[in-house]
Amino acid sequence: MSEFTCMKCGAVLKTDEIALYRKLISRGAQKYSCLKCLAEYLNVTKEDLEKLIEYYHRTGVCSLFAKWDDEDQKDQTLK
Ligand SMILES: [Zn+2]
Predict the structure, then answer these.
(1) Which residues of 15-50 are buried (b: 16+ CB within 10 A; e: fewer)?
(2) What does each of the 79 residues of the chain score in pLDDT, given as a tens digit?
(3) For residue 1, how far is its CA from the centre of ligand 1 (angstroms)?
(4) Residue 8 Cα, ligand 1 centroid: separation in angstroms?
(5) DSSP three-state, residue 6
(6) Which of 2, 18, 71, 76 is buried most, with the most CB atoms less than 10 Å from its CB?
(7) Global pTM value
């Protein structure tokens, strides 16, 4: 499995960061940015984006995010 890095700062990306980028910017994106750079770009805070990721996981409304059925899954994903 290849590792993706932020196109702006070079940080190694988590699956959720890539999924959120696809969700908010472009489904077909080949390059992504980390939450920090994406937050700057969208003029929101990193915390806003983290909440959004959590929202998608909890509700399961977006196919890019695996649905969380319990808190254990949340802990595993965010570490
Ligand atoms: Zn970055």
Answers:
(1) ebbbbbbebeeeeeeeebbbbbbbbeeeeeeeeebe
(2) 568 999 999 999 999 999 999 999 999 999 999 999 999 999 999 999 999 999 999 999 888 898 887 666 666 555 4
(3) 20
(4) 5
(5) strand
(6) 18
(7) 0.82
DSSP assignments along 9-45, one per residue: T-PBPPHHHHHHHHHHT-TT-SSB--HHHHHHHHTS-
Task: Determine the 3-state secondary structure of 71 from DSSP.
Answer: helix
How far apart CA 20 and CA 13 sit, in angstroms, is 11
Measure 47 CA to ligand 1 centroid, in angstroms: 15
How many Å lie between the centroid of ligand 1 and the Cα of residue 73?
25
Nearest CA among 77, 13, 71, 9 for reference residue 41: 9
Residue 54 Cα to ligand 1 middle (Å): 20
